[in-house]
TrEMBL record:
Residues 179-188 have a biased composition (Basic and acidic residues). InterPro entries: Ntn_hydrolases_N (IPR029055), Peptidase_T2 (IPR000246). Transmembrane segments: none annotated. Pfam families: Asparaginase_2 (PF01112). Residues 169-188 are annotated as: Disordered. This is Beta-aspartyl-peptidase. It comes from Paraburkholderia solitsugae.
Amino acid sequence: MNTNAVIAIHGGAGTILRASMSASAEADYHAALHAVLSAGQRVLADGGSALDAVSEAVRLLEDCPLFNAGRGAVYTAAGTHELDAAIMDGSTLDAGAICCVTRVRNPILAARRVLERSEHVLFTGAGAEAFAAAQGLEFVEPEYFHTEARHRQWQLARGQDRAMLDHDGATLASNNDDPTPHEPIDPNRKFGTVGAVALDQHGHVAAATSTGGVTNKQVGRVGDTPLIGAGCYADDATCAVSTTGSGEMFMRMVAAYDVAAQMAYRNVSLEEAAHDVVTNRLPKIDGRGGLIAVDARGNITLPFNTEGMYRGFARIGETPVTAIYR
Ligand code: ASP
């Protein structure tokens, strides 16, 4: 039995505008992160697998409208939602992912079914939805994913008449007379993808990541989240990783896999490998964001190169720790 069992989660990284922070919004985020960590911690304490713990944590984060995944996902340029998710089991290297789905309530559950019940790894669009339907997963009307905050954010991005990554909203935020964002991290400048990594009592690791992508993205655009090795990776021999940030750069750096590869090939610690990816390699191509990672010994690291990242971790029998700022 591994007594270092632990779960870590993130709810996106980005720029903090302290001026727009309300105490109650901050409390809401801490409470949401705490509840999700407690649920994941219970799975691990009951002897459940890391795979079960990360699935459950990400499912709950998808259902929470505060985060850009599942309900609360950002809008495409066409005013629709397209969701991506991936999950990987470090004990077998089995993986499953789906992208560009529009009506699957919990994309992470569809990714999990791909992992468990398909010979393939990644399904897209109509094929992904057909697979999810055949698996009996819950479908919702597109309006289910709508939230006022995301819609307002899209209207602002749309006014710029171009596709934009969330963090490009810096300009928007400063030009915008509407002081409505009351989130601790300016919603126009954050990457709200969610993710979880865990080590279970049996010594296995797993990772899961889910997102609505980036605001005003072109229809059909796919980021790093559902790509194994970019937004999600897990291998008992090294670590489990889930990322959030400017997806195109994380794809080009094969960011999640790079953490594992550095541990394997350079023989460095989890901390050192993750730190190198986030603070040295990604910034070289203007990659902004962060990641969470755990190794088979129960070490965890949650680095980011933005001003903040919604994050937390919980070990069995200990109070979950949550944080937003640096
Ligand atoms: N990485 C995600 C994407 O590019 C966005 C995010 O992390 O919020 O789709």
